[in-house]
């Protein structure tokens, strides 16, 4: 069924968009990430303008994250105090990111900036995660549970404003989760992603959070961060397509529930390995699209007289 997207100014197949939302929502619940690192590139692959894909995807992330976090909340897998600290940093990052996005749009470089950002961040983080998760899977049999440590203390753990987070059994500087949230807010605003592919490993290896709490807490802070970014994009850049967002939300809410259930059946190393593989594949696809000659290298545009 073909429908017209008023902001993207193009027709799309509604069933394809619904299925895309369901699939990415499933991955969101499975990996504990917003799913934007897949949704935004897939929307671009379908021909949606990158600026609209980013603005609308931030809107879809709100619904997918709410659905996923409710499932984790029922299991007690959310550290609310730590999530609020991350949320404060995320809100500030969203404001800064939307202003930067607006500047790139005025310069006419926003589409290239979005693609390059994806290739760089996804390629780098995905490769590192793939190497780490592979080592963890290989060493799992040789290491007894009592020998493993969640994290190692570094100079970052000597920062001021030490705060106790009882749910995660942590005593760390509040600046650490706030900084992680700030980076996540920037990624939401500029790339249309929740930043879970970066937040999840940072929460595990920098903060030392228990793996069982990471997914739920990550989704908890993503909700407010993406809501702020969506509002600012709609007001400042006018890139939020409500029709497209509604279809993505409908599919995403359903898919997230099934993904959350499956996540309980997999080990942390397995989930990280699958997430890393997906991140790398998307980065490779976007990189190829930047360097390969498109099927239609030239576009003829009719300009009205006097415009």
Automatic annotation (TrEMBL):
<feature type="transmembrane region" description="Helical">
    <location>
        <begin position="242"/>
        <end position="259"/>
    </location>
</feature>
<feature type="transmembrane region" description="Helical">
    <location>
        <begin position="82"/>
        <end position="104"/>
    </location>
</feature>
<dbReference type="GO" id="GO:0005886">
    <property type="term" value="C:plasma membrane"/>
</dbReference>
<feature type="transmembrane region" description="Helical">
    <location>
        <begin position="12"/>
        <end position="38"/>
    </location>
</feature>
<keyword id="KW-1003">Cell membrane</keyword>
<feature type="transmembrane region" description="Helical">
    <location>
        <begin position="174"/>
        <end position="207"/>
    </location>
</feature>
<dbReference type="InterPro" id="IPR002781">
    <property type="entry name" value="TM_pro_TauE-like"/>
</dbReference>
<comment type="similarity">
    <text>Belongs to the 4-toluene sulfonate uptake permease (TSUP) (TC 2.A.102) family.</text>
</comment>
<keyword id="KW-0812">Transmembrane</keyword>
<dbReference type="Pfam" id="PF01925">
    <property type="entry name" value="TauE"/>
</dbReference>
<feature type="transmembrane region" description="Helical">
    <location>
        <begin position="271"/>
        <end position="292"/>
    </location>
</feature>
<keyword id="KW-1133">Transmembrane helix</keyword>
<protein>
    <recommendedName>
        <fullName>Probable membrane transporter protein</fullName>
    </recommendedName>
</protein>
<keyword id="KW-0472">Membrane</keyword>
<dbReference type="InterPro" id="IPR051598">
    <property type="entry name" value="TSUP/Inactive_protease-like"/>
</dbReference>
<feature type="transmembrane region" description="Helical">
    <location>
        <begin position="110"/>
        <end position="131"/>
    </location>
</feature>
<feature type="transmembrane region" description="Helical">
    <location>
        <begin position="213"/>
        <end position="235"/>
    </location>
</feature>
């Amino acid at each position: 069924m073909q429908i017209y997207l008023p902001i993207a100014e193009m027709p799309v197949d509604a069933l394809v968009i619904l299925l895309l939302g369901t699939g990415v929502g499933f991955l969101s619940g499975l990996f504990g990430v917003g799913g934007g690192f897949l949704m935004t590139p897939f929307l671009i692959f379908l021909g949606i303008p990158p600026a609209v894909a980013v603005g609308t995807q931030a809107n879809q992330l709100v619904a997918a994250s709410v659905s996923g976090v409710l499932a984790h909340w029922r299991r007690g897998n959310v550290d609310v105090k730590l999530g609020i600290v991350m949320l404060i940093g995320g809100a500030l990052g969203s404001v800064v990111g939307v202003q930067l996005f607006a500047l790139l749009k005025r310069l006419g470089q926003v589409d290239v900036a979005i693609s390059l950002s994806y290739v760089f961040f996804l390629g780098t983080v995905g490769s590192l995660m793939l190497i780490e998760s592979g080592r963890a899977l290989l060493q799992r049999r040789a290491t007894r549970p009592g020998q493993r440590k969640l994290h190692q203390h570094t100079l970052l753990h000597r920062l001021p404003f030490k705060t106790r987070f009882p749910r995660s059994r942590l005593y760390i500087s509040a600046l650490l989760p706030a900084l992680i949230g700030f980076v996540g807010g920037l990624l939401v605003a500029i790339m249309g992603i929740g930043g879970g592919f970066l937040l999840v490993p940072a929460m595990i290896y920098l903060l030392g959070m228990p793996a069982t709490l990471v997914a739920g807490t990550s989704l908890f802070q993503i909700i407010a961060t993406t809501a702020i970014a969506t509002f600012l994009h709609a007001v400042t850049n006018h890139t939020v397509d409500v029709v497209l967002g509604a279809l993505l939300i409908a599919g995403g809410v359903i898919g997230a529930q099934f993904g959350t259930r499956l996540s309980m059946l997999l080990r942390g190393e397995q989930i990280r390995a699958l997430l890393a593989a997906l991140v790398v594949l998307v980065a490779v696809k976007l990189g190829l699209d930047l360097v390969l000659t498109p099927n239609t290298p030239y576009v003829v545009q009719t300009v009205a007289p006097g415009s």
